[in-house]
Every structure is written in structure tokens, then in C-alpha cells.
Amino acid sequence: xxxxxxxxxxxxxxxxxxxxxxxxxxxxxxxxxxxxxxxxxxxxxxxxxxxxxxxxxxxxxxxxxxxxxxxxxxxxxxxxxxxxxxxxxxxxxxxxxxxxxxxxxxxxxxxxxxxxxxxxxxxxxxxxxxxxxxxxxxxxxxxxxxxxxxxxxxxxxxxxxxxxxxxxxxxxxxxxxxxxxxxxxxxxxxxxxxxxxxxxxxxxxxxxxxxxxxxxxxxxxxxxxxxxxxxxxxxxxxxxxxxxxxxxxxxxxxxxxxxxxxxxxxxxxxxxxxxxxxxxxxxxxxxxxxxxxxxxxxxxxxxxxxxxxxxxxxxxxxxxxxxxxxxxxxxxxxxxxxxxxxxxxxxxxxxxxxxxxxxxxxxxxxxxxxxxxxxxxxxxxxxxx
Length: 385
What we know:
Blueprint: H1 7-33, H2 37-49, H3 68-81, H4 83-102, H5 105-117, E1 122-126, E2 142-146, E3 149-160, E4 165-173, E5 184-190, E6 196-198, E7 212-223, E8 227-228, H6 234-270, E9 272-273, E10 276-277, H7 282-310, H8 316-341, H9 351-360, H10 369-383
Parallel strand pairs: 1-4
Antiparallel strand pairs: 2-3, 3-7, 4-5, 5-8, 6-7, 9-10
Helix pairs in contact: 1-2, 1-3, 2-4, 3-4, 3-6, 4-5, 4-6, 6-7, 6-8, 6-9, 7-8, 8-9, 8-10
């Protein structure tokens, strides 16, 4: 087994690292403090110029064709500097991948070049609803058949980048009489379509620079050509999308956790108490060793899941394992890093306070840790049945 990165993967990782350090890190604190969505939009457009908004998309549609491993590496580096930018980048890449995988040629030609080039600052998934979060099959949004198309009605919640997205991937019930999860269809809808209203940004604990909104659909008219994939097969598409998205969110969590520990490692070598650096105390050394070991294990889980997906192998279980472990260990890393700084870590002048808020959501969105455990257990039991 070769665990080394290819030359292209190393180049993408280094490019993302350099961009994050020079463009994102200097403004990350202000983006958070001011909930500066406009700056995140600017960041996303710069990422598009680097080819990072279509990392696993064919060059035919303006993508980079760099693959899933490169996507994971890039998201991690971006998240080390600005988690708000990283989540918009991750979700937009997943929107592009779903369109490439399931879209018609017309849909791909219409939307993918706009996403990859940055003409669309972002793309958004409209799946979650107030009563359908961990149980998306319980959604109430409806698409009703009309002459020549469909009318979409309903409200979607917690939609990342909604206020500056160019296209929405929308799930709605098209056959209310079908068994649960069997009558759902996925639609591609331009954000400027009449009848769409984006609500005000939510006031969040962390990742404040990333816009999170409700999206309301009121008699939104779309044609049959807006259907993504097959009629009444949207739930299966959603499950597949979530599996890929978990690699992105796990990679994002890893980036935050690594940034937190890197900052703490530097701090304890400079800070002195009792006449010697904090790094001389065994208790802190062991804390450092445990967290870095866990984060390295998370990185390997993510690389394994990304490699499986890139090679066209089943990866859903591995993606859930990676997302579960990376998000929970990143949360623990931020807790430990803040503890190492003591009272200073609690102050906004230091980045640990922001990182500790930013990392918390990673064990919730794209499927909670509890849902990941259900998925993992289900797959393991299936393998042993």
C-alpha cells in the first residue's frame, strides 16, 4: 500500500496551504466577528480561480479533475485558516459532483462551468427541513405535477450559502402515496427562479462567516428538464450525496483540529510557568501526544475513504467512520488546545476561542455522530449477516 501523495496531490495541498495562509488567515477573525458573508463570497471566487470549486469535475466542464483525495487535502488546508470559507467550498464541490454524476448533458453544460469558474459563488443543497433533519425521508416539501412541469412548495432549513448560491439542489415529495422515502425527487433550480425567497442569515455559535438560511419555495415553476436523476428516486441520490459530503466535513474538522493543536504546540514552548516552558511539563506533553495521534488517525481514515471513492469502490461506511472520528477528535483537540492556553485561550484575541466554536457543528451537520454510528453499525452487521 502506497500512502504517499502524488505530485499533483502534493501541489494542490501546498497551493491550498499557501492560499489559506496568505489570503484567508489574515481576515478570518474579522470574517467571524462581523459575520462577513461578502468576504466569504470573495474567498470562494478566489478559490474558483485556483480551480478549487470543481476539484473532482471533468475539465470538459471547467473542473480540475484532481480527484477526491485532492479535494480532502484542499478542504483541510482551507479549514485551518477559515472554517466559514471551507464549508462553502466543500458543499459547492459536492453540488457540482452530484450534477456531474446524475445530471443530463444539458444540466451539466448549464451549471458546472458556472460553478467551477466562480460565476456562481456557491451552490446549495436544499434537503433539511424543520421536521426532517436526521430523518430526511419525512420531508414535507411538495412538487405537484402541472402541464409541462412542476410546482415546488415548501421551506428548507439550515441551507449553507443560500443567500449567495447560484443554483439549488432541491428535494421534494412527488408521490405522497408512495412508501416513505420512495416518492421523493431531486430538482435543479436556479436561485433566481420566481417564487424563491431566501430568509435572513441565522445567528450561529460558530462558522459565522458562512451564511446559513431558510429557503422558501412558493409555487416555483420548473420543467421536467429540472429533474436531477430519475423521478421518485431522489432519496437514494440524497443518501449518496451525504456519503460524499461526509468526507468534506471530516476534512474540514481535521483542519480546525490541526490548526488548534499547532497553535497550542507553539504557545506552550514560549509560555513559561514555574521557571520553565509549559512544554517541559509531562502532563501537557501527553495531552499533545494523544491529540496529534488521534488527528493523524483521522487523516488516515479520511484518506482511505477518499481513495475508495476516487477508485469507484463502495465508501459509505468508511466515510461515516472518517467523519465520526475526525469531527469528535477535532472537538477534543480544540478543547485540549484551549486548555493549554488557560485563560488566554478563552479570550477573543486568540484564535482558539473561534476554533472551539467553529468545530462544534462538525459533529452535527452532514449527519450527527449518532447517525454515523447507526450507519456504521448497519453496514458492519450487513457484512456479517
